[in-house]
Write a structure and sequence with these properties.
Number of domains: 4
CATH class of the largest domain: Alpha Beta
Number of strands: 43
Length: about 800
């Protein structure tokens, strides 16, 4: 017997209660084609012998609060053997087509099929299957031939997804009478060293690129290309630009190579919507007879780091100097890129002098033998006599070396850690500071042949930022971020960034990348990490880094009125955190319900008007909004490094009951401990006086009689000792200038369609004073739109 025949012959008392309830509801409410007309038709049928008294008893059910005359009638005729087919015939006789729709044979069909995809571990991933059926549809997900626990809804959610969740999935949809299956889908999950949150973007992206290889004849060749995206990516390998037949897997393997396998390989990845080419990998196959020399060269090319650590500082909110915008975006984007290269990254915004010194001390603790160390700084700065100085946000006006951090002194301390690579990326002005008459001569650096400086601009020049809407990029970062992931020697990579910048017409003649390097080995930021066998130093380094990146766990808070809210946390930087609140459950009688955060620590200087916003952008967070859950209230906490105690605040719930105009409230005190960088207490005093990053006021280095004993030698140049003295500097085809003419802009000059920019006359550019000038303005809005 078919499903349809089985359904039609079914006694109506065996139908699902949901069907009977819906039919009863329709007939109870209908006047001309309601239950009384149905009862009249049934009474004329000899099979059911329906009396007037029984019809009257059914009508009395209308007096009960939850009674139904129709339901009583259906139960009565069901007891006398009425089938679904017979009831449908009665309904057709009275013209009740609406009720008949619920008595159709059950059918089921998958309307929305799940899609195959490739994702990174740590994200939240959903497989969706939607089926239409009558009367109700049940779901059950399977991984191969095993049921997925709790996989009994239309969406199968992994949060967070793990590598072991990879596999083939199918969804069975069924009801009491029928069933169907969705299409099989493949879910590929790849390990990620990044901290991934939220739903994947689903855009096609190559996660792991093929690498250059040098092999001996007979060696095994293995090239790997891993892409993520939705739908599932497909692969096609090429050699020397020609497609390789049947090579459509993510791994290209040759068990025993010959000279014929030499060439340049790449992989084309597509998912039907997008296409992306991998980087090109050169495969070199040499004869075994080249013996020792070749093998030695090969082994020396296999460079690696014992770990990778980066400190990123972006100073914007200066107390006494021009405010900047680009450092926030630059630090955020560089953080994401470096994490893809397996760097442990500490990213900090707006640090005082004390906080910068202590942050550098913590950075030095993470360094060890063979570790790649990278320091990036974006903010105000200057350069005197070859020494570069980073300016804290609390630097006075004017500032001197005693108020700033000397980069070369930090390099000296990094060398003492026997690091494998020291990279400095300085996105700051390199004008001379007239107000600083101190000549610092640090101790001689060791010849380590592993130092790389990437300056955003040339000596004596400024660096610029580009503003677009609420976001801004420094010129340097605009071009650096496009190449940073390339598998090239770091100096080669920076050379190509310099070439890219040189083609930018907007800054031609004003800003050019400068590279200084002693790097001899072919070291790249993409070099693999080979950890030592759990050395105490490595364990301590990992623990220290982990401490600076611990977020409070999300929590569910239940109030006495029955409302439940979720409190979540997200890191924008190592010292900037987003708190979001969302009401997850509330009784039906409660209306106008809102949960907000109050009583934040005074040390964070949080404006109450800027808290509990409907969008992250309203709090000033433009960078992580796409990764945060929607329909929440958001509060952004910056300068977490200033916390001296645990982060405490109050969650205040305001609500009303239906029919009552009074506004009620409940409050709960929350203590989440010390989040992120606040655990390291970098707000406290200098903790390692003997390892200072540069001299501080009143130290032996700044007292002439003790200068010899300090870690730096300090000389005062009498040419600059008198602030009233005129400097006569000759420039070809320029007039001589005096100190009266010598004011200029500080490190960044904003180039934006929305604002005007101050530039100095040619004569005024000859003096280097890190103070802002507003003598002349040129509108570069139209230029920006044309050139960038």
């Amino acid at each position: 017997m078919s499903n349809s025949q089985q359904f039609h012959s079914l006694n109506i008392n065996l139908l699902q209660e949901a069907i009977l309830h819906k039919v009863s509801e329709i007939l109870d409410q209908a006047s001309d084609r309601g239950w009384r007309k149905l009862a009249g038709v049934i009474a004329n049928d000899r099979r059911y012998r329906l009396s007037s008294l029984e019809i009257h008893q059914c009508s009395l059910k209308a007096l009960d609060s939850e009674g139904s005359p129709t339901r009583s009638l259906l139960r009565l005729i069901g007891d006398r053997g009425c089938t679904t087919s017979e009831l449908s015939s009665f309904l057709q006789n009275i013209g009740q087509s609406e009720a008949m729709t619920f008595l159709k044979p059950p059918g089921i069909k998958v309307a929305v099929q799940p899609e195959s995809m490739a994702v990174l571990s740590g994200q939240m991933v959903k497989l969706s299957c939607v089926a239409h059926g009558h009367p109700v549809v049940n779901y059950q997900w399977f991984k191969m031939n095993k049921e997925v626990p709790y996989g009994n809804s239309s969406e199968l959610v992994f949060n967070p997804i793990q590598v072991q969740d990879s596999g083939h999935y199918i969804c069975r949809v069924n009801n009491e009478f029928s069933f169907d299956f969705s299409d099989w889908v493949q879910l590929d999950v790849y390990e990620s060293n990044l901290t991934c949150h939220g739903l994947p973007e689903n855009k096609l992206h190559i996660h792991i690129q093929p690498q250059d290889q040098r092999l001996l004849i007979g060696d095994r060749l293995g090239l790997e290309c891993i892409a993520i995206g939705k739908p599932l990516p497909c692969y096609q390998w090429y050699r020397n630009g020609m497609a390789l037949k049947d090579e459509t897997n993510r791994v290209f393997m040759v068990s025993s190579v010959s000279v014929d396998h030499q060439g340049v390989y790449h992989c084309k990845v597509t998912n039907g919507k997008e296409t992306e080419d991998s980087v090109k990998a050169e495969v070199l196959v040499v004869e075994e007879l080249l013996s020792d020399l070749t093998i030695t060269e090969q082994s020396t090319d296999e460079l690696f780091a014992t770990d990778k650590v980066a400190l990123l500082i972006g100073n914007m909110s200066y107390k006494y100097h021009t405010q900047l915008k680009a450092p926030m975006v630059d630090v955020y984007e560089l953080t994401n890129l470096l994490r893809q290269l397996d760097f442990k990254v500490v990213s900090l915004l707006d640090l005082t002098e004390l906080e910068m010194r202590n942050a550098v001390d913590e950075f030095l603790l993470l360094l060890d033998k063979g570790v790649y160390g990278l320091l990036y700084y974006a903010g105000h700065g200057y350069e005197n006599y070859g020494n570069s100085f980073m300016v804290p946000i609390d630097a006075p006006k004017p500032y001197r070396s005693s108020n700033c951090l000397c980069v070369q002194s930090i390099l000296k301390l990094m060398q003492e850690k026997e690091t494998g690579l020291n990279v400095f990326l300085l996105d700051m002005c390199r004008k001379r500071n007239q107000y600083d008459d101190t000549i610092l001569i640090p101790e001689s650096l060791k010849v380590t042949a592993n130092i790389v400086f990437g300056y955003a601009t040339c000596q004596g020049a400024e660096a610029f930022e580009i503003q677009h809407c609420n976001l801004a990029n420094g010129i340097f970062m605009k071009f650096l971020k496009k190449r940073l992931l390339e598998n090239k020697k770091i100096t080669v990579l920076l050379d190509q960034v310099a070439e890219d910048m040189g083609r930018c017409q907007l800054t031609k003649g004003m800003q050019a990348l400068e590279i200084r390097s002693s790097l001899s080995a072919k070291r790249a930021l993409t070099d693999p990490v080979q950890h030592s066998a759990c050395s105490p130093e490595s364990l301590a380094r990992n623990l220290q880094w982990a401490k600076a990146h611990e977020l409070p766990g999300s929590m569910c808070i239940e109030f006495d009125c029955g409302v439940k809210i979720t409190l979540g946390f997200a890191a924008e930087f190592s010292n900037v955190m987003i708190i979001y609140t969302r009401i997850t459950e509330k009784p039906s009688e409660i209306i106008n319900c809102k949960a907000s955060i109050t009583d934040l620590p005074l040390a964070l200087y949080v404006d109450p008007k800027e808290t509990n916003k409907c969008t992250p952008e309203e709090t000033g967070s433009f960078l992580v909004s796409k990764d945060l859950p929607k329909h929440c209230l958001y509060t952004r906490l910056s300068s977490l490094q200033t916390l001296k105690e645990n982060l405490t605040f109050t969650v205040c719930l305001t609500y009303m009951y239906q029919g009552i105009e009074d506004l009620l409230d409940e409050c709960k005190a929350i203590d989440v401990g010390k989040p992120l960088i606040s655990k390291l207490d970098i707000h406290s005093g200098i903790r390692n006086f003997c390892a200072q990053t540069c001299p501080i006021p009143h130290s032996p280095c700044h007292s002439p009689e003790y200068a010899v004993a300090g870690s730096h030698q300090v000389f005062t140049d009498s040419r600059y000792s008198s602030p009233s003295m005129h400097l006569n500097i000759y420039h070809p085809q320029r007039r001589h200038v005096t100190q009266h003419d010598m004011y200029q802009q500080s490190r960044y000059s904003s180039i934006s369609p929305d604002i005007k920019i101050g530039y100095l006359s040619e004569s005024m550019k000859t003096q280097n004073v890190p103070e802002e000038s507003t003598d002349e303005y040129i509108d570069f809005g139209a230029v920006l739109q044309e050139k960038l």
